[in-house]
Write a structure and sequence with these properties.
CATH superfamily of the largest domain: ABC-type transport auxiliary lipoprotein component
CATH class of the largest domain: Alpha Beta
CATH topology of the largest domain: Rossmann fold
Strand content: 15-25%
Largest sheet: 6 strands, antiparallel, barrel
CATH architecture of the largest domain: 3-Layer(aba) Sandwich
């Protein structure tokens, strides 16, 4: 009985050994062929089951928390810039390393009041100041170098005799420019005072006998003057960007009784009108050249976490992917109308989408952590 039991045990152990060898052989073949062994298949598959990976959204025009996709946004923005920047950018020789000349700054052209209104009566020039402001605005628009805003109704100086010199403590305060900048959404404000539009010798047009004899014997002085003081302010910083006097003169070859509006087509056909046109052209060119190297400041209109809304649009020339610097504006409570002090935060923002009048951007830090809020600025130097 014991013998037969031992034999049965030996048989069972032999079968178990053969089974183990077969399993080992099969496992070796599976490993050689790159397949998983069948032993403990459920446990192995459970351990190596891949986790579900969330795919990035296809639409990368995101308005909230874009930091996770900012690198992709910048890559797409580079393609957009390559497609749209058909003209090669030529750096300004006065500021060759600056980026600001790439973009169109906002310029408000305010009124140019006439210091001696009685001078406009001769020849019926009428609203000289408004015509000068409007003509300058049209020239800036045609240049396509700045974003021009027309504001001929705005009078910047309480005292024309002191303007445009800005004296601390006088009624002519820099704060007035800040108010205009905030109202019109323009960083720069151009204004001035027309000093002279008078004729050199009014008797040259006299009809009495003595004047006629004088004109017959001597050449009459029919020249008319045009002189004005012009000033450009940065309304956001309060700085005087440019201040200059322009003058010109030309023959007023119009009879005494003729009435010609200043700035009309008939006006610019006269020798005097051509002299005025040259002055206005010189003013336009000088201001454009001066603004070219000025940093472009853009007001921040909304801050939500790391997301920003900026008061700038596509007419500025900005494209997605542009990088700007954040600056904090600190105003004095006792003088809210005066320009704020600006402090650099050393933090950059990325613009990721633009419309005609606004842009959305992302910054790597929370606005509350670096004290950036509505009323602060983004800047390109």
């Amino acid at each position: 009985m014991l013998k037969s039991g031992s034999a049965a045990f030996s048989v069972r152990r032999g079968l178990a050994l053969v089974s183990s060898l077969c399993i080992a052989l099969l496992a070796g073949q599976a490993s050689a062929q790159g397949q998983k062994p069948t032993v403990e298949r459920a446990e192995v598959e459970k351990a190596e089951e891949p986790k579900e990976v969330k795919r990035e959204p296809v639409n990368l025009v995101i308005t909230k928390e874009v930091g996770r996709t900012q690198n992709k946004l910048d890559a797409y923005a580079k393609i957009i810039r390559q497609e749209q920047e058909t003209e090669v950018f030529e750096p300004n020789s006065l500021c060759p390393s600056a980026d600001a000349p790439r973009y169109r700054k906002k310029l408000a052209i305010a009124g140019f009041p006439l210091e001696h209104p009685g001078q406009s009566v001769f020849g019926g020039l009428r609203e000289v100041g408004k015509a000068v402001s409007t003509s300058l605005y049209q020239r800036f628009e045609q240049s396509e170098q700045v974003q021009a805003f027309s504001a001929p109704q705005l009078q910047m100086f309480a005292s024309l005799t002191k303007a445009p010199t800005m004296m601390v403590g006088s009624s002519n305060k820099l704060g007035k420019y800040s108010a205009v900048s905030r109202e019109m959404g323009a960083q720069f404000v151009m204004s001035g005072v027309i000093r002279d539009v008078g004729v050199n010798d009014p008797s040259a047009w006299s009809t009495d006998y003595g004047s006629k004899v004088k004109r017959a014997l001597f050449s009459a002085d029919t020249n008319r003057n045009f002189e004005l003081d012009m000033i450009v302010h940065d309304g956001y910083t309060g700085q005087v960007v440019m201040e200059k006097r322009y003058s010109g003169s030309g023959r007023w070859d119009v009879s005494r009784n003729n009435q010609i509006s200043f700035g009309s087509s008939r006006f610019f056909e006269t020798a005097y009108g051509q002299a005025v046109e040259k002055v206005l052209g010189d003013m336009t060119s000088d201001v454009i050249a001066q603004l070219d190297c000025q940093p472009m400041l853009v007001p921040i209109t909304e801050v939500i976490g790391k997301d920003l809304l900026l008061d700038v649009g596509t007419p500025s020339g900005l494209l997605p992917g542009a990088i700007m610097h954040l600056v904090r504006a600190e105003s004095v409570l006792a003088r809210p109308d005066e320009p704020a002090q600006l402090w650099d935060t050393d933090v950059e923002l990325h613009i990721h989408s633009l419309s005609l009048d606004s842009a959305r951007a992302w910054m790597p830090k929370l606005g509350s952590h670096i004290n950036i809020q509505k009323g602060d600025y983004a800047v390109i130097y």
